[in-house]
Design brief:
single chain; tt1808, chain A; 3-stranded antiparallel beta sheet; two-stranded antiparallel sheet; Restrct_endonuc-II-like; Putative restriction endonuclease domain-containing protein; Uma2; Nuclease_put_TT1808
């Protein structure tokens, strides 16, 4: 048995922004996203975003829902939740602050 440890490559946000395709970065580990979600999944995400947007508007909150927006948690962690709610000024590009709410719609794997 070898005593040599194997290490997975570790990445940062600087490398992440250069990648093509759909990826997330979890504590430096590259995570390939699954193929596009099903129509049912996207329908749920769309309805949830609309419901949240209507509720925010009805309460006249300074907030906005976003669908599949990159949230940069740290230098080595970037995720793309299905729906985020951000209070205050919306981000120009990616979200770099903690969102008010995060929702992930779970779907059956094929």
């Amino acid at each position: 048995m070898s005593s040599v440890q194997k290490f997975a490559p570790r990445y940062t946000i600087e490398q992440y922004v250069q990648w093509q395709g759909d990826w997330e970065l979890w504590e430096g580990v590259a995570i390939a996203m699954t193929p596009s979600p099903s129509g049912i999944h996207q329908g749920v995400v769309t309805r949830l975003s609309r419901i949240l947007g209507n509720a925010i508007e009805a309460e006249q909150c300074d907030a906005e829902p976003f669908v599949e927006l990159d949230w940069i948690i740290s230098d080595d962690t970037v995720v793309r939740p299905d729906v985020l709610v951000v209070c205050g000024t919306p981000p120009d590009r990616h979200l770099e602050q903690t969102p008010t709410m995060v929702a992930e719609v779970l779907s059956d794997c094929p």
